[in-house]
Design brief:
Length: 324
């Protein structure tokens, strides 16, 4: 399913099977999650878009071809391919072990072809081997929603009371991780979205309400997964002195002006960008013991546009997954 022009629906296309170059693998896609970032790609909200492009960066598949020089992976192995598709390895950020900020990266489904397809080619160094003990569909959302959620939670610090703004794919995983770590989760949804609030409670949130409501007590940290910039001052208002607000999305609408007192008293406002392979390995290693259950709605690959429309309209809980 190809995005040929920004702002238009994806188009079904029959393309020749891609061939892996040196250091690359080819996978037969088994499942690919649909992420809000895919909507930003389609809508042209990210800088310097590449078209035509095959979106999709939560790929679970099996290797069916190895490019020259690939080591440590074998044909038939199940792997996950995430958003971070390639880094340069030599820029100051790569050298500081902050490859998520690489100056010359490639991103799966944004600047290199992704997983809304039957086959995908990836840089072998950025593919995560996956164990065999979960279904392809249930694993797919871990590869971005789970990973970015994990990184956001780490950056949010050790505080016990954590607010999650926007209870979609990422928050539904983070809520389970946070609960497993003995933290209390406060879920903020669109005002009046009682079904998402009930969903949040079913995953262990001790409180759920609209983003226009204050939490019953001040929070240690808040993570914003939703895109409205108005949530930033609301979240700052919800955290205690010294608390942190982490913006986890790749794109938000403009943040409105707000009184300095909301930031004062050493509250911190931070953002999370991309992931490192370290995040991926750490999260995927610990996910089984945390017994994370992903709630998924699957669509056949040729219904990718429907999946994107349903994501935009908030018509499902958890995560959408495309199956070729
Ligand atoms: Zn770099
Ligand atoms: Zn994503």
């Amino acid at each position: 399913m190809v995005l040929k022009k920004i702002g238009t629906p994806l188009e079904w296309a029959e393309l020749p099977d891609p061939l892996p170059g040196p250091g690359e693998i080819r996978v037969k896609v088994a499942a690919c999650g649909v992420c809000r970032t895919d909507l930003h790609v389609v809508d042209g909200e990210l800088p310097d878009p590449t078209v035509p492009i095959i979106p999709g960066h939560e790929i679970v598949g099996r290797i069916d071809l190895l490019g020259a020089g690939v080591q440590g992976l074998k044909i038939g192995e199940r792997v996950g391919i995430p958003w971070l598709g390639h880094t340069c390895g030599v820029c100051p950020y790569c050298l500081e072990h902050r490859e998520n900020l690489c100056d010359h990266p490639l991103f799966t489904g944004y600047t290199r072809n992704g997983g809304f397809a039957t086959m995908a080619v990836a840089d072998a160094r950025f593919a995560f081997p996956l164990s065999e003990n979960r279904s392809d569909i249930s694993l797919a959302p871990l590869l971005c929603a789970g990973l970015i959620g994990w990184r956001s939670l780490v950056i949010a610090g050790e505080g016990k009371k954590v607010g999650l703004y926007g209870f979609g794919a990422a928050a539904h995983i983070v809520a389970q991780v946070a609960k497993c770590q003995g933290r209390s989760v406060f879920a903020f949804t669109r005002p009046g979205d009682l079904s998402s609030q009930a969903f949040a409670r079913s995953l262990g949130a001790i409180w759920a309400g609209g983003s226009d409501q204050p939490p019953p007590e001040l929070l240690d940290a808040a993570i914003i997964f939703a895109t409205p910039g108005e949530l930033v001052p609301l979240a700052l208002q919800a955290v205690r002195k010294g608390g942190r607000v982490v913006c986890a999305g790749i794109h938000m609408s403009d943040i409105p002006g707000f009184p300095y007192r909301l930031l004062w008293e050493e509250r911190q406002l931070l953002s999370v960008a991309n992931l490192t392979r370290q995040d991926g390995m750490e999260f995927l290693r610990r996910a089984p013991e945390m017994e994370i259950v992903t709630k998924t709605t699957s669509y056949p690959l040729d219904q990718a546009n429907q999946a994107l429309a349903d994501l935009r309209a908030g018509r499902f809980e958890g995560a959408a997954v495309l199956v070729p």
